Amino acid sequence: MPDALMKHLVVPVVDEEDARETARILDNCEYGRVTVVHVIEKGEGVPDKIPLEQAEQRASEAFGAFRGFIPEIDTETVYRRNVVAAILDVAADVDASAIAFRPRRGNRLVQFLSGDTALKLATDADRPVIALPEETENE
């Protein structure tokens, strides 16, 4: 039985590769329920980054890749401009015990230009945020 922290995790994923790697790492942990969330960034007055159909396909592929390791998941696709706010809203809506994510690699310039989503997630969250390790003991 997982401890209270791992009872219900919200796990954001970006794409198929990210979902696969995140699920692979999480599968080595003891957890309860998992809600995987994919945020489709909407422009709100400006053009979207990619066409909606392509973005929804990316979400579907990410969920499928995650299920390759952890079949029993709930999924949420959210359409928002603010990725961090969307993840936090899903966590609140499903009453998650924590948010677990795999930090994405990137140099300081990439982090600066992207607004460092991981930092915002950790500092803005109203619940624990767990950074999953890149390597696991079972590897």
From TrEMBL:
Record domain UspA: where: 7-132
InterPro entries (UniProt xref): Rossmann-like_a/b/a_fold, UspA
Domain of life: Archaea
Annotated Gene3D superfamilies: HUPs
Protein name as annotated: Universal stress protein family protein
Organism: Haladaptatus litoreus
